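Quarterly update from the structural biology core.
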Amino acid sequence: LHEHARFTLDTPPSEHFATYVYGCVRELATRTDVPPLRFSIHSEVPMGVGLSSSAALEVATLRALRTLLEVALDDVSLALMAQRAENRYAGVQCGVLDQMASSLGAPGSMLFLDTRTFQRRVLPLPADAEVLIVHSGVTRSLAESGYNARRAECIEAARRLGVAALRDVGDMAAADALPAPLDRRARHVITENARVLAALDAPDAAAFGALMNASHRSLAEQYEVSTPALDTLVALLQADADVYGAKLTGAGFGGACVALCRAGTARRVAAHVLPAYSSRSGRDGRMLVP
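Predicted structure, tokenized:
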């Protein structure tokens, strides 16, 4: 993909991909003078598969500008600025998880993040485990998918329940009072938050994998962001004896699946699952990680 765009601070680009960079420049311009610049961007993060390519672009852009312009900007503030750039200029009402992961994450580790308090912990992967990420062959864009609609539904569900956010609901039964589909959206968020906290104390990779499996079921049935292709790929991964757990990753509506595999088996699992997936779905999946 080789594309070009030109813009000024007062004239945003017409090309959507460039709005992510433009937003970062606009946000940083509130803190310091930004001179005329030429950006050359190369990335190996695949786009449209749920691996936070937009957040990676935003964080990389702001890191480069931070260094070039010698701006005092810590990694948390940088991630928040990247989120604002995506919200205000790319039209995606995303949270801050992707930007925080890009800004604070470490290779071979997991990031626990409380997006309200910014409490965070960098944790090792479960013992005897490695990550496998497989693309379903179905691309999607957050700006074009149902992401914003799901976020709006959660906001409305919280309003009807009289809380600031669904994380403040302690009893899942409260969702029963909501009309469809708000009841399903609330059930997903309430149970997903509980799964994240349970993952902190998961005793082993098998327990962590079970939480991943439950997460995918909820994403498919309650949040309704999976697709038949994703469900097929996840089911094939979960059926492999060397897979502890698997789920869609990212916002859904296409993209990739992530699996936690027994250490040293991820490539074999992909080689076994992908032909079966192609046969059942008619789509060409591919291994992205490792």
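The two ends are 23 Å apart (CA to CA).
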